[in-house]
Amino acid sequence: MAEVNTFTGAGLDRAGALRRDAGRMAELRAAPESRALVTTDAGVYLRDAAPALVPLDALDGVMSAEPLLLGIDDEGRALFALDAEGAAIPALARAEPTPLREAAALLDQRDGGLVAYAGALLNWHRRHRHCSVCGAPTRIEEAGLLRVCPACGAHHHPRTDPVVIMLVTDSDRVLLGRQPSWPAGRYSALAGFVEPGESLEEAVIREVREECGVEAADPRYVSSQPWPFPSSLMLGFSARYAAGEPVVRDGELDAVGWFDRAEVAAAAEERGPLRLPPRLAIARRLLDGWLAGGG
Ligand SMILES: [Zn+2]
User: Fold this and answer.
1) What's the predicted TM-score (pTM) here?
2) Taking 80 as the threshold, does the pLDDT of residue 37 lie above it?
3) Cβ-contact 9, 113 below 8 angstroms
4) Taking a C-beta distance cutoff of 8 angstroms, is the pair 33, 53 a contact?
5) N or C: which end of the chain has fewer CB within 10 A?
């Protein structure tokens, strides 16, 4: 497949064994070739349409947080993610972080994957400083892929929240909805969080039913996309229309309905009243695939 989803393709060796080796990690933190990708809650620091990779040894004394190992790149260099919240980093003086969605539009595939990885990992750490079992402050282990509670011993792994997003089709028409906060005219695929005790296929059928009263059938997995806002994984599905007429039901959508292939094709060329989701979104990939005859 030539076209891949935005926010995939970081292509790093995530170095599962190495990150558990305290001696090697200390060497990598001190190595002059090691680099840090620096983010804040507001976004990622860029330079010349690429992540600004700051030498880790230039950050000694100015880091307010522990650098987290992302992995080893093609050149054998260690790449870290660093939360710069509250720190003044001389190498980035006068620079402003770029929000991840804007960054994705500027970066190539690999760098888009890299900033999504760093963003999702740091988002998790920002929100999980305390143990969810006993409330004690936790400490970072495995160079960022684990937090351990010193009080009760619980291990906490970075979590990813699964969201199903599905294109329900009925021969030449597709079911789309819009949320109240979206720009005028924009519609997209229906989507929702997977609930406990539920398969992805069950979540697809439930969400479509809850959001608009339509019965969908035969969910088929298409592709997935990390969505670091703050830590979702979008799981793209196609499904077949089975029964029912779409009506807004649960308050998440303010409109829902069928659009035919000609309307969607016009929207893809920015003609007509319908507006599609931005190209970085998996919903757009699903729609482009459907237009191209891929189901
Ligand atoms: Zn605990």
Assistant:
1) 0.93
2) yes
3) yes
4) no
5) N
Query: Strand, helix or coil at 174?
Result: strand
Q: Ligand 1 centre and the CA of 157: distance in Å?
A: 13
Q: How many residues does the chain have?
A: 295
* DSSP E strand stretches across 189-279: 190-193, 215-227, 232-243, 255-260
pLDDT digits (tens, 9 = 90+) for 170-218: 999 999 999 999 999 999 999 999 999 999 999 999 999 999 999 999 9
Tokens 């970081």 map to which residue?
Answer: 10
Q: What does the alpha-carbon distance between residue 125 and residue 121 come to, in Å, rounded to a whole number?
A: 6
Query: Residue 143 C-alpha to ligand 1 middle, in angstroms?
Result: 19
| Residue-wise DSSP of 14-65 | --TTGGG-HHHHHHHHH-TT-EEEEEETTEE-EETTEE-EEEGGGGTTT-SS
CB 120 within 8 A of CB 127: no
Query: Tens digit of pLDDT for each residue in 57-109?
Result: 888 777 778 899 999 999 999 999 999 887 778 888 888 999 999 999 999 99
CA of 15 to the centre of ligand 1 (A): 27
Q: Give me ligand 1 centre to Cα 194, in Å.
A: 26
Measured in Å, residue 155 CA sits from the centre of ligand 1 at 8
d(CA 119, CA 45): 11
User: Which residues share a beta bridge with 46?
Assistant: 51
- Cβ-in-10-Å burial (0-12, 13-18, 19+) of 132 comes to exposed
pLDDT tens digits for 131-153? 999 999 999 999 999 999 999 99
How far apart are the CA of 140 and the centre of ligand 1, in A? 13
Question: What spacing in Å lies between the alpha carbon of 22 and ligand 1's midpoint?
Answer: 23
